[in-house]
Amino acid sequence: MESNNISVGLDIGTTKIVAMIGRKNEYGKAEILGIGKSKSLGVHRGVVNNITQTIQSIQQAVQEAEAASGVKIEEVTVGIAGQHIRSLQHSDYITRSNSEVVIDEDDIDRLINQVHKLVMLPGEEIIHVLPQEYKVDGQAEVKEPIGMYGGRLEANFHVVVGQVSSIRNIGRCVKSAGLELEGITLEPLASANAVLSEDEKDAGVALIDIGGGTTDLAIFRDGIIRHTAVIPFGGNVITEDIKEGCSIIEKQAELLKIKFGSAWPGENKDNEIVSIPGLRGREPKEITLKNLSKIIHARVVEIIEQVYVEIKNYGHEEQKKKLIAGIVLTGGGSQLKHLKQLVEYITGMDTRIGYPNEHLAGDSDDDVTSPLFATAVGLVMDGLKRQEKKRLESVAQAALEANKTLETNEQEQTIEQPRKERKSFLDKLTERVKDFLDNAE
Q: Alpha-carbon dihedral of residues 399, 402, 407, 413, nearest 10 degrees?
């Protein structure tokens, strides 16, 4: 099987590491060929804190995916999240030397590069610069300024910032696991691509991805990302609370949460009891489901309220910024019973559970379309998009070469010059991380 149209997403999470192999089918949908997952031991709240263990977990997941698909994995698109991610709004402008010439890619590059000169806190680095809308000579709400005349070009940017060391550590783990870094993507963006429809992004929607160690938020409106945040709590703190509250071991707490847990205490009758075997011959413990869901409820309310604060920070309460499509929940934590009802109750916003089947082939396994794999599916799609771009670039390059020889032969024929694709900052970041790793060896 040729590997050039295959892409691999590597989701390095707090609870699990997933390697997913996918390719585009003839209908332009992503077809998942293989999936591997391993327990993640070296990651805390989305940040790598034990490199050796993380490398082992990555290798295990990759081997499993290779075995399932029969494809050898060389390059991966990796997600970055964690409690160190923050985002800010920033506007900037450039003055063009000649307003008689139309605005082109280079002007936008100049503007974006200017944003990169922003001074960050020590140890922080800009991960994404996402232009939202442009102004040309004071004319507001320009979606695409290329081709317009104007002397002053300004834009509002959504800037996502993270810790350099964390980004490099992820790069280090990937490289040491014997893999090449094809690209880096912000995880909330990857999940959003896998789960949300274009209509939802237009109408205004908040994607809440409840992972093991962190809860990621991405807000879209008018098809543009407006706000991102990472809240440093996830499913693990719920398990911790159950463990402490019921004096049981973590494995049992996790099972209890998955099998019997509910976010809504009113659902359970007082007499519903689960018996848990004691350790090494001790008496079994009896736990009432009502107590269990009270513990879960308290913690989930706290997570959702923090997310809601972020949604309000974005300005959801202003008429212009209303999120008409409400909230979409995804990630492993979204599978908690009655969570949808609780979220609707706290926020008063329409809520649905998001399954990553928006762009997957119709015959995909149920496993793959579980909310657990939203980020991994998004990363695969991101990798496929990157390859498409590379392919187009090489075609464009070939067309240019052909064009040159044509020009020398016949001056009359003009061929439409292919538009040069703007390098997204992430591509530049990936290159920088690669360079850093190559030089550090």
A: -60
CA-closest candidate to residue 235, choices 267, 263, 205: 263
Place of tokens 């506007």: 91
How would you classify the pairing of strands 327-330 and 205-210? Answer: parallel
**How far is residue 173's CA from residue 12's CA, in Å, rounded to a whole number?**
10
pTM: predicted TM-score of the whole model, two decimal places:
0.87
Tell me: pLDDT of 358 over 90: no
H-type alpha helices, 95-186: 105-115, 164-176
pLDDT at residue 74, as a whole number: 93
Class of domain 235-299: alpha beta
The Cα 248–Cα 275 span in angstroms is 11
CA nearest to 224, candidates 147, 138, 314, 149: 314
The answer to whether 35 and 65 have CB atoms below 8 angstroms apart is yes
- Residue 269 phi/psi, 5-degree rounding, is -75, 155
| pLDDT tens profile 33-83 | 999 999 999 999 889 999 999 999 999 999 999 999 999 999 999 998 888
Please name which of 129, 122, 128, 130 lies closest in space to residue 164, comparing C-alpha atoms. Answer: 122
What CA–CA distances, in Å, run from 332 to 62, 100, 208, 373? 20, 54, 11, 8
Q: What is the DSSP string of 72-92?
A: ---EEEEEE-STT-EEEEEEE
DSSP per-residue string spanning 237-286: HHHHHHHHHHT--HHHHHHHHHHH-BS-GGGS-TT-EEEEPPSTTPPPEE
* DSSP classification of residue 363: T
Structure tokens at 156: 């509002």
State both tokens at 144.
Answer: 């695409």
Alpha-carbon distances, residue 285 vs 246, 249, 273, 274, 278 (angstroms): 9, 11, 10, 8, 6
